[in-house]
Description:
The chain is an alpha/beta fold. It has a single domain (9-237), classed as Rossmann fold (3-Layer(aba) Sandwich). Helix content is 43%, strand content 15%. It contains eight helices and seven strands. Strands 3-2-1-4-5-6-7 form a seven-stranded parallel beta sheet, sandwiched between helices. Helix 1 (18-29) packs across helix 8 and helix 4 packs parallel to helix 6 (152-172). The chain binds NADP nicotinamide-adenine-dinucleotide phosphate (NAP). NADP nicotinamide-adenine-dinucleotide phosphate binds at residues 13-14, 16-20, 38-40, 43, 60-63, 88-92, 111, 115, 138, 140, 184, 186-187, 189-192.
Amino acid sequence: MTEKLAGKVALVTGGGRGIGRAICQLFAEEGAQVGVADIDMELAKQTLETLPIPGRALQMDVSSKKEVEAGFSELVAHFGQLDILVNNAGILLSTTFEDCSEETWDRILAVNLKGTFFCCQAAIPFMKPRSRGAIVNMSSVAAKSGGFTGHPPYAAAKAGVSALTIGLARYLAPHRVRVNAIAPGVIDTDMTKTANHAELAARIPLGEVGTARDVAQGALFLASDEARHITGEIIDVNGGLWMD
Length: 244
Ligand code: NAP
C-alpha cells in the first residue's frame, strides 16, 4: 500500500460489482474512505465488506436526480467532504439500429449519460468552493469505434460521456478540479460474460481481455495527485484494441 489517496473521500457509482468494485477496493487500499453507490444496495454492502478501511454503502440509481442528490448529501454528511467522484455506473443492452425501442434507447442514455451528468452536477458544490477535486468518468472504446456490434445507443451515450468530460474539465480547470475519463476495451466482468473472450482476445494486440483491476489502476492514477497536471484526458485501457 502506498497511501496515494490518504485523507481523501471518494464516491464510486456502480460500485457493487465489476470494475466499480475493483475501484472501491483499490482506492480503499490506497487510504481513501469510499462511498460505494449502487442501484442494488445489497451489492454495495457486499463491496463494503471487502474494503480494508470503513466506507459507506449508498443506495443510488444514477438516473434519478433525487437519489443522486440524496446519496451525495448522505456521503458528505458522513465523511465531511468529497474529493473524488468516479462515474462508473453503466449498462450495456444489445440492440440494433433497426430494432432499438424507445425504452431501450432511453434507459441506456439515462444510466450511462444522464447519470454521469447528474453525478457531476451533484459533485460541483462540494469541489468547486474548495478548489480541489478529481472526477473520473467511464467512457468506452465504443465511443471511438461506434460500438463493435449491436450497441448503437451505448456507443452514443459513451461518446456523450467523453464530450461531457472535456467540457466539464474546461469549466472546472480554473477551480483546480480535474475531470478525466477512462475508455476501457473489453474487460472481464458480468457485463461481458456472454461474449466469447477467447475470440475477443485474439483481436486484442496484447492478447488478452483486461481485468477490472487494470481499469481500477487507471482510475487510481487519474484520481491521485500524480495526475495533478492532467485534465480533459481520456485514457484508453484496452490492450491496444483501439489505437489513436
Ligand atoms: P457491470 O459488471 O455490469 O457492473 C455495473 C455496476 O453498475 C453494477 O453493480 C450495476 O448494478 C450498477 N448499475 C447499473 N445501473 C445502475 C444505476 N442506474 N445506478 C447505479 N448503479 C447502477 O459492468 P462493468 O463491466 O463493471 O462496467 C463498469 C463501467 O465500465 C460501465 O460504465 C461500463 O459501461 C464501462 N465499460 C465496461 C467495459 C467492459 O468490457 N466490461 C468496457 C467499456 C466500458 P446491478 O448489478 O444491480 O445492475
